[in-house]
Every structure is written in C-alpha cells, then in structure tokens.
Specification:
- Chain A: Homodimer.
- Chain A: One of its GO terms (molecular function) is glutathione transferase activity.
- Chain A: Its EC number is 2.5.1.18.
- Chain A: Belongs to the GST superfamily. Theta family.
- The complex is a heterodimer.
- Chain A is mainly alpha-helical.
- Chain A folds into two domains: about 1-40, Glutaredoxin (3-Layer(aba) Sandwich), CATH 3.40.30.10; about 45-200, Glutathione S-transferase Yfyf (Class Pi), Chain A, domain 2 (Up-down Bundle), CATH 1.20.1050.
- In chain A, about 65% of the residues lie in helices and about 5% in strands.
- Chain A has helices at about 1-10, 30-40, 50-65, 70-85, 95-115, 130-140, 150-165, 165-180, 190-200, and strands at about 20, 25-30.
- Chain A has a two-stranded antiparallel ribbon.
- Chain B is mainly alpha-helical.
- Helix content of chain B is about 65%, strand content about 5%.
- In chain B, strand 1 (about 20) and strand 2 form a beta hairpin.
- The longest helix of chain B is centred in the middle third of the chain and has 23 residues, at about 95-115.
- Mean pLDDT of chain B is about 80; it is low at about 1-15.
- Classes of the chains: A mainly alpha, B mainly alpha.
- The interface of A and B includes residues 32, 40 and 59 of A.
C-alpha cells in the first residue's frame, strides 16, 4: 500500500535521518515510525501480530538488532564507503576485515537465534522484524559485501521477504543504497559528515 | 503491582541476561520483556499509553536508548570492576575518561532531547521509557561514578521515578548493582581469567 512505500522511504533514504511528520507531530527513530504507521493505518495483523507471543518475538528482534545487525551493518558501510572519503586514504585491509568479522558474528546469531528454520522471524508470516532486518542488511550489501552469497538460508529468506513486499517496490526503495559506491563527500549533508567523522576516526 | 516487580527484577539482575520464561515461551531483551508483561497483565495505561502519539514517544526513546545510554552506561561497570577482576590489572584512567565522555554525550542528549523540562520522558506520567533509562543509569552509580551529582535536573527526575516505582522496590531491584564493589572480592578461576583477558581488552 501507499504507506508501505512511505515506510521504505523513511527507513532507506541514504544519509538522511529518518523522520516522520504528521501534522504538528514529528517523530524520529525508524522503529518508532514503523510502529506508529502500523497503528495509525491499522495495517494487516502479520506486520505486528496481535498474538502476544508472536508480537513479543518481533519486539525481541527489533530490540536486539540495534547494536547487532544494524550496528555492525552500518559500521561496515560507514567504514568501507565513508571513511576513505573522510580521510582521503584507501582503507587499510585489516580494518575492513575487522568490521566484516564483527558482522559475520551477528549474522550467525541472526540465523541461529532469530530465523532458525522458520520462513520468517516471527514464524510463517512476514512482520516488521523481517522488513527492518533486510533493510539494514542492504547497507553492507550496498558497500560491496555480498553477505548472501555463501548463506543459502539467508538468501532464501531474503527472496521470501522481497516477494512478500513486492520486488519492484523493494528495488525502488534500495536504489540509493545499492549505488552507494558512487557516493562522494559533497553528496552528504555537512553536519552528518561531521558526526560520522567523529565516530569513525575514534576507532 | 506484581508486573512491575517482575519487570524490575528481571532487568536488574547483574550478569544474567534478562530472560523471561512463561511456560514454554522464553523471551530475551529487556524491552521485549517489559512490553510483554505490560500487555499480559494489562498494566495501568501510563506505562505504555494507548494514545498512539504518546506511545510513539515511548517507542522513540526505547529505540534511541539501545545505541546510546545502553551502549555507554554499562561500560563504566566493565572498566571499573569487571575488567580489572578478570585481567588482574587496574584499567588505565584514559579509558575510563573516554567512557565517561561517551556517557556524558548520551546524558546531554537524554536531558535536552528526551527529558527537557518535563516530569518524565513522555510528559507528566512515568512510562516504560523512564524505567528502562533509570535501570541502565544505576550502573555507573553502582561503581562510584555518580552521574547525578552535577546534573540537578536528572537527579530530580530520578527522585520522581523512585517515588513512582516505590522506593523499597527500587532499592530491592538495585541491591545487587549497588553492592557491586563486593564482586571484587570474588575469586576467579585462573584459566578463565587467562582465556577472557585478551577478549575483554579488545
């Protein structure tokens, strides 16, 4: 539906902090935005199931993912794509290896703890958890790390999510991030650049 | 009510990953647990308001919390107590300073963006957001980094949260955290120390 396109745009616009405006009400944090949209537009139940335990599984993933999939995925993206732009130097291979390894660890946890042998995170139907997971995983993919290549279970899950969302909508939403390699420093908002500079150069 | 004590007990238990078991159903992640409990026991509305905008404010805080307060506050405990315990070395003070700076940045954002001049994070009533925040912020206090000392607005907020939760329950839940210095007297198996030290020093 229309609001799903909105959802995608809000969580995927490259280099912009997701924000929602509804009249005089503004909201940040992509998870909060998604939940708000689900409630406001009363989306189909499977996105955020009314069943207490299924819902808890979605909450569990949405909570865990902040410092794990999201944290490590964006770290890899920022390190690989942004750091060389900021320093003007090529990326030292050990640095890339380090952040890749960190991501690999959480990918293993994702497969073993959250996905397991189910079609989707909460069970037989797609939910916000899958949406958020895949969106975050597109960051390292956009940076050139094809993490789905040697992970068939994950690749199957990805196909299922893309199908459930709609292939065209999915491609549209990820156009920006999948062309991340063409990113140059001037395309990024200066204060955002400063923020990442501080974060990345600390490490 | 009973749901609050369960919630508080489960999120403050030192060194154990918060987990809930409800028959066959197990759940991790403190945010997920608190939400589950509030729904299962139909807790008073203010904990997770039914008004979708107020609820969104709680979600907004809970989301931001992970990469900020939750990422920084516990590091004080690692630096001051747990790492020295496992490695047998005191930790260099620059590392502690780095951690405190990170925490300061988060606290500044917490005060300016989330708390502002309100009584509680989302307004005039306490919610899950305040509970989740205070639980993490007690960790530095427990290891002697009194983050409330120079922050009167934060201290006032803490007092309000304690009052709303009930002082006795609050201290019960934090007993272990506030007695963490006792942990230093525990003997750790030397093999475990050897194994963990390089991991912890990363």
């Amino acid at each position: 539906g229309q609001h799903r396109t909105e959802e995608f745009r809000k969580v995927n616009v490259l280099m912009k902090v997701p924000a929602l405006r509804d009249g005089s009400f503004t909201l940040a944090e992509s998870i909060a935005i998604l939940l708000y949209l689900v409630r406001k537009f009363k989306t189909p139940d499977h996105w955020y199931p009314s069943d207490l335990q299924k819902r808890a599984r979605v909450d569990e993933y949405l909570s865990w993912q902040h410092v794990n999939i999201r944290g490590k995925g964006s770290k890899l993206f920022l390190t690989k794509v942004l750091l060389p732009l900021l320093t003007g130097q090529p990326l030292p291979p050990e640095k890339l290896e380090g952040v890749t390894e960190e991501l690999n660890v959480v990918l293993k946890q994702f497969e073993e703890k959250f996905l397991q042998d189910k079609p989707f995170i909460a069970g037989s139907e797609i939910s916000l958890a899958d949406l958020v997971a895949l969106v975050e995983l597109m960051q390292p993919v956009g940076a050139g790390y094809d993490l789905f290549e040697e992970r068939p279970k994950l690749a199957e899950w990805r196909r299922r999510v893309e199908e459930a969302v709609g292939k065209q909508l999915f491609q549209e939403a990820h156009e920006g991030i999948l062309n991340a390699k063409n990113l140059t420093a001037d395309k990024i908002a200066p204060d955002l650049l400063q923020h990442f500079k501080h974060q990345l150069l600390k490490q | 009510g009973p749901s609050n004590s369960e919630g508080a007990g489960k999120v403050s238990f030192l060194k154990k990953v918060p987990a809930l078991k409800d028959g066959d159903f197990t759940l991790a992640e403190c945010t997920a647990i608190l939400l589950y409990l509030s729904r299962k026991y139909n807790t008073p509305d203010h904990w997770y308001p039914s008004d979708i905008q107020k609820r969104a404010r709680v979600d907004e805080y809970l989301s931001w919390h992970h990469a900020n307060i939750r990422a920084n506050a516990p590091k004080t405990m690692w630096i001051k107590v747990l790492i020295p315990l496992f490695t047998g070395q005191p930790l260099p003070s620059e590392k502690l300073q780095e951690v405190m700076e990170g925490l300061s940045t988060s606290l500044k954002q917490f005060e300016e963006r989330f708390l502002q001049d309100k009584a509680f994070i989302i307004g005039s009533e306490i919610s899950l957001a305040d509970l989740v925040a205070i639980v993490e912020l007690m960790q530095p206090v427990g290891v002697g980094c009194d983050i409330f000392e120079d922050r009167p607005r934060l201290l006032e907020w803490r007092r309000r949260v304690e009052d709303a939760v009930g002082k006795e329950l609050f201290f019960q839940a934090h007993e272990m955290i506030l007695n963490i210095k006792e942990l230093s007297n525990i003997q750790i198996d030397p093999q475990l120390k050897e194994h963990l030290a390089p991991v912890l020093m990363k």
